[in-house]
Amino acid sequence: MAKPLEEIRKARIEKIRELKKLGINPYPSKFFQTKISCQEALNKLGKGVSVAGRLISLREHGKMTFATLKDESGKIQIWFQKNNLGEKYQLLKLLDTGDFLGVFGKIVKTSTGEITVDVLTFELLSKAIRPIPDEWYGLKDEETRYRQRYLDLLLNEDLRELFRKKAVFWNAMREFLQAKGFLEVETPVLETTAGGADANPFVTRHEALDTDLYLRISMGELWQKRLMVAGFEKTFEIGRQFRNEGLSREHLQDYTQMEFYWAYANFEDSMALVEEMYKQVIKKTFGTLQFKINGFDVDLSNKWERIDYVDTIRKYTKKDVTKIKDPRETDENWKEVRKKVAGPVFLTGQPVLVSPLAKRQEKNPDFVERYQIIIAGSELGNGYSELNDPLDQAERFKKQQEARDKGDKEAQMEDTDFITALEYGMPPVTGFGVSERLFAFLCNLPIRETVLFPLLRPEK
């Protein structure tokens, strides 16, 4: 029967006291040797090595003890012999699984053929007070896994690999854009006016300025457009943005987003660039362009087709959304239809009503030059030819503000400072944004599962 946690804690704290009495610091600032990884050590047969990591097992056999040491690269067996260690061998009774240990010894092969460090000396690097959960059973309760994510990651190599893959995903996107001549920029996270998207912002207080501020709801859309006014021609930003909205398989309140802005180009140019970018980034991250997501078989390798917003809604609902005057109702119709689209496709032909920042089509000004990427029934990217007519933009902001004043928390705020910038002239610009939802979908996982530390309610 397993010992109660408090009993284990008390026993380990007592070991800390014993170590200190012996003049041993249970928490030194560094390892006394220059270490190599456990994986590297496995290839050093016959040589002396220093390795460090967490003890995940201890097995005593008379005058010798076998243990397993684990670091980020993998595991290696270590072998403590009383004949080698002398009196220091007695210190092993003060060690527990979960402790961090540094060892120096010779790489040998045991009689069972296992590559092992024959330890000549060792140093305790950090004493663990709580036991690590059993590696085979791990953490089963979802909230516990999220709340103690460090243990979930420790016990689950597949989960650790997921986040290595996520780093590849964003770095591949960054490298692609930089290779195309885009400049990475940083824009404000705190804003006096939340803009660039239809979303309910978080409000915070700036004590020094004695004013309320908003956490950004877009990746600096209106700021990057100001940079287009300032003479920059290709910019992008990857960072965190925040929306005070509901939780779901696809939505979080704070998440990573990329947005780029490209002068002297339109949404047609953007679509070509984005399709190339997705294929390159996804291939580099996952090694394939074929996926099974939410019951859809998705092949990203072919040329992506286009579908029309109005025609697609009419096809599935028999409704003509051009007759609907409420943007929320129009959007809800599309969101219901979207679930039926396997993709990958570019959705085009959106009404002005649901696109307050996009440029109107010249031949049909009730519609805009916009596209959304639809994969497995979800929107996984959004771009358009940016509106650079300050009079048109001012009128649309006014209508959005009116809707906001009537209670629509997701309607955009009127940003007079941005209108001022546009009045100085902004060249033709196309913009595009994609969030980490794309990565989650390609993994066929809820987005919370692909976030290192999902937000949770405080424990009571």
Describe the structure in your own words.
The protein is an alpha+beta fold. Helix content is 31%, strand content 26%. It is built from 13 helices and 18 strands. It has helices spanning 5-21, 38-41, 82-85, 142-147, 149-155, 157-179, 221-229, 267-286, 309-317, 327-338, 390-405, 416-423, 437-443; strands at residues 48-61, 64-71, 74-81, 100-109, 115-126, 183-184, 190-191, 203-206, 211-215, 234-242, 254-263, 290-293, 296-299, 305-308, 345-348, 370-375, 378-385, 429-435. Strands 6-10-11-18-17-16-15-14 form an eight-stranded mixed beta sheet, with helices on both faces. A five-stranded mixed barrel has the order 1-2-3-5-4. A three-stranded antiparallel beta sheet has the order 7-9-8, with no helix packed on it. A hairpin with a 2-residue loop joins strand 12 (290-293) and strand 13 (296-299).
Primary descriptors:
single chain; 460 residues; alpha+beta; OB fold (Dihydrolipoamide Acetyltransferase, E2P); BirA Bifunctional Protein, domain 2; 2 domains; 8-stranded mixed β-sheet; 5-stranded mixed barrel; 13 helices; 18 strands; 31% helix; elongated
Give the helix/strand layout.
Blueprint: H1 5-21, H2 38-41, E1 48-61, E2 64-71, E3 74-81, H3 82-85, E4 100-109, E5 115-126, H4 142-147, H5 149-155, H6 157-179, E6 183-184, E7 190-191, E8 203-206, E9 211-215, H7 221-229, E10 234-242, E11 254-263, H8 267-286, E12 290-293, E13 296-299, E14 305-308, H9 309-317, H10 327-338, E15 345-348, E16 370-375, E17 378-385, H11 390-405, H12 416-423, E18 429-435, H13 437-443
Parallel strand pairs: 3-5, 6-10, 14-15
Antiparallel strand pairs: 1-2, 1-4, 2-3, 4-5, 7-9, 8-9, 10-11, 11-18, 12-13, 15-16, 16-17, 17-18
Helix pairs in contact: 6-8, 11-12
